[in-house]
Amino acid sequence: MIRLSHIELGVSDLAASRAFYVGTLGLQITHEDDRTLYLRALEERGHHCVILRKSDKAEVGVLRFKVFPEADLDAAHAFFTAAGQPVEWIERRFMGRTLRTQDPFGIPLEFYAQMDRLPPIHQKYALYHGVKPLRIDHCNCFSPDVDASVAFYSSFGFRVTEYTEDAESGRLWAAWLHRKGGVHDMAFTNGRGPRLHHLAVWVPTPLNIIDLLDRMATTGYVTNIERGPGRHGISNAFFLYILDPDGHRTEIYCSDYQTVDPDLEPIKWDLKDPQRQTLWGAPAPKSWFENGSTFAGVATRDASLKAQPIVAP
Amino acid sequence: MIRLSHIELGVSDLAASRAFYVGTLGLQITHEDDRTLYLRALEERGHHCVILRKSDKAEVGVLRFKVFPEADLDAAHAFFTAAGQPVEWIERRFMGRTLRTQDPFGIPLEFYAQMDRLPPIHQKYALYHGVKPLRIDHCNCFSPDVDASVAFYSSFGFRVTEYTEDAESGRLWAAWLHRKGGVHDMAFTNGRGPRLHHLAVWVPTPLNIIDLLDRMATTGYVTNIERGPGRHGISNAFFLYILDPDGHRTEIYCSDYQTVDPDLEPIKWDLKDPQRQTLWGAPAPKSWFENGSTFAGVATRDASLKAQPIVAP
Amino acid sequence: MIRLSHIELGVSDLAASRAFYVGTLGLQITHEDDRTLYLRALEERGHHCVILRKSDKAEVGVLRFKVFPEADLDAAHAFFTAAGQPVEWIERRFMGRTLRTQDPFGIPLEFYAQMDRLPPIHQKYALYHGVKPLRIDHCNCFSPDVDASVAFYSSFGFRVTEYTEDAESGRLWAAWLHRKGGVHDMAFTNGRGPRLHHLAVWVPTPLNIIDLLDRMATTGYVTNIERGPGRHGISNAFFLYILDPDGHRTEIYCSDYQTVDPDLEPIKWDLKDPQRQTLWGAPAPKSWFENGSTFAGVATRDASLKAQPIVAP
Amino acid sequence: MIRLSHIELGVSDLAASRAFYVGTLGLQITHEDDRTLYLRALEERGHHCVILRKSDKAEVGVLRFKVFPEADLDAAHAFFTAAGQPVEWIERRFMGRTLRTQDPFGIPLEFYAQMDRLPPIHQKYALYHGVKPLRIDHCNCFSPDVDASVAFYSSFGFRVTEYTEDAESGRLWAAWLHRKGGVHDMAFTNGRGPRLHHLAVWVPTPLNIIDLLDRMATTGYVTNIERGPGRHGISNAFFLYILDPDGHRTEIYCSDYQTVDPDLEPIKWDLKDPQRQTLWGAPAPKSWFENGSTFAGVATRDASLKAQPIVAP
User: Fold this and answer.
1) Number of domains comprising chain B
2) Is D266 in CB contact (< 8 Å) with chain A?
3) Whole-structure pTM over 0.95, yes or no?
4) CA distances from C68 to B165, C74, C100, C115, C179 (A)
């Protein structure tokens, strides 16, 4: 498997979401119809990284992953079958055959090998606006049992780069796992789940994030700014968290580090160390710990670890 | 009068203050003895912009202002005498004759025309480190009566650029006044006073502020980070507030705007608009509204307006 | 006198100039008719900083300066009359009464006290695009006799901040003079003149200049990039020089230093030091030394000093 | 194979090289003795990315590549043996067993699976200085036959991301090949070779490159600045080329793009398009096309394609 490549979000008002993701963030429309919007970021050549679908409720449709070569799709089919997960071959627009399955907590996952390719636009600088999103980076999900989630994703190739351990129980509180050579493609945090905590897009520099803040703050989106800007202890990334009109959370993200060495040692953080969350010390707001987006048709269950107290350094 | 040019701070541990202002912020030492440290920023040619003086308690010695030409010193003497304020000619090291006086609330003020000049160092880039402080920008003080403070400073040449009005009483809550062509040399905020709220140094770009945050957060200064980074509504500046080892507050500041036109209209803000404080919406911590440094030997009195509730947008 | 406030350029194709100054640079249109375009930068509240006027030939109309208070207009009238220069009171659109005169080499100068004020837009971040021009900074002109130009402008209040001297003759090669507290409002360089070398606009950070380069390079303007990006030795500014569709040169400029102290010593540079031009060493192209825009109806004469050899460090 | 991981340079004056790579660039010393200096960049956990070795002449010792797992070392041994290249198992300090071999033109290559790991320092921000080098990125070499070089490296796993073709002959002029998911680990350019054109280090943002330029220009290194700053058309990277005291060239590099999809189509450039070299148009100096570092004990031969004329856009 190569990487997390796109996500499908159910949104209640396509025009409002278009204004947010296209007009404000700067994602590029690659296909649009009455009920759907396909978007790509500026250095991507795959057809889309985000699909917005008109929906009665705000929810997440599916997370999709690129595999390569084609034979790995069949290997994935065999793996998920052996794991006792439901599997199904389906056709998806702009892609070849797609394997639909789910993780042990019900997160809908799809795998494919081929997506339509579009000509490069990363040097069409007239298209750059908003936060200048370059590519999708990762998804972070609440899991009711992070140990179980990490064990499962590790079993088909994800590698842990950083993690937080609850010192008392010795259990995982949160973990970051990658395929593509950054800190993560997927992360899991203890909490009622499965729910999407956030989707992340990669941007060139912290100044683009400051530009976005200035713009959101003066175009009616000030209450959509949830947390940041700041530096995460974990991942070392410069971040901003914002909410779309339906409350789906996006992290604007840059400057984590390269993790391509397969023997790179995971970094362990203490649950009691508040700098793991914000290196600079400012605590995240309560909403950031509590709110998330449910997956369509997937029931959630309580977290296995008791909620941590929110502490400032 | 030309500008606010320097401030004298009483500090309890000169070595700790040296580590903070020189080692971490990057101010340059221009004179040092057992009890005093003179510092300048990188584009300044005057001998110093900050004096740190060993003191039994953390307090502010004096604010000093450059006038030019020399004759304006005599005019200042006449003005403060006519205003009924105590005046005194004194000699200060590294400067010529100095007029010592005070404002109506007792803030110690000194005026001088000549300070020793040092060779330029703004292109000695090997000296740049820390946050790369370029120059002193302004001081912000709590005043028990902002209307009275503004009236007084305006009477000798300060011009208001922005202000916050309490809609009910029609009285000033806070005001920003300049001489040198930026948003302010001096600002006053309603509060128990007189007290110094903060001193501000100007830096090149927001990225230098991010560098400082990373450095402070990983060298034992994480609890000295009080507020920010953020964008002020008022002044439009990108800011960070940090505390020195004695709790004296410094604002790291960049990107306000030019105000040299004498007929530039002041911008009025509503006390109920939280974006005046942080354009992006995040509220300041309680300490930021409450804590300040007293001036040596000067009694404080209660604010004339009742404290505002701290609100998020 | 307060500052250089705007310039009028004659352009051969208003639509092409509009695409350049508005679409690419990001100046804001404040008035537009068949033959004229009035533009302001993002932190300015005066009605305009650049006027583009349809013209048979590419040339410069006039440089205009704000004075304050109104009485200084009469003082200027007296000064130029005494200096033997032609003077005339005229009415200009969007301004009050205006004094038209010229400098000893014929550069058309106009002075006014009042310009229409527009509401602030510096926090309307949705308007920011292109290079995010904040304000007009300065004009630089070829002068056939820099000593004479500097003497004249100094006689009505300009102060020299930096200069280049021809060591052999002891004469000025170039000089930078300010009113508003930066390195310059006006600069003069030895050369066939009078001609405008360039107009400069101030931008927030070097990254905005890099963004402009990327955009110009990929939208048909690559040959309009003449020199840079780089750091000037003189002024310490980060710069880029670009050419508009008529060949008028604009400098995109940031990060010079504050010069408000009236006793700030000018910095002297040796004509043989190539780092005065580009601190980093790369030489300017020949065109940059030779090309300039004539002033409408003003004859030029040869430079008084022989052209310097163009040298790399 | 995982990635290019380090390079060994022969230098004539270890103290001068130390001042350059450590004092000016900001690489960290991990081991030092009389004749050798081991350096790592700030986000690396492997023991070193550059080895400087005292040498009678300026030359390149070897390029080394990390493979994983250990079994891939044996596969590499088999591959190079089958390819008719000399192979040898050797022991290298701070690494496990190492395979020494060479490419068809004689470039000395070594492969290893294990290097000593050091604790992370990427959040020890007090160590960051100079250009804040984060990691080694790639090496670029002159090849007398780029087609042959590309064919060879492709046969053991490198993938071409961009290339320049000579339209007349249909032969490759230059090519960029990667393993780790960026634009390249190795590049080859037509020229007398084999010679190293440059080593590249990755830095966070273009502003760090501007800081380095300011510093080099004012600390005696102005003539070590060879080309830039600029944006490459190929790779889209923001670049600066500098020369160490022996003339070894380093590229300071940031902001290329992610290439992890194995089916990413290579981008083809026309040899006649000058924007492939500098998107913004400024031509590279002659030295940049001509100078390179020889590999120790390896004879060079003439380029197979005739030198291109150096053209500006």
Assistant:
1) 2
2) no
3) yes
4) 28, 11, 16, 11, 12
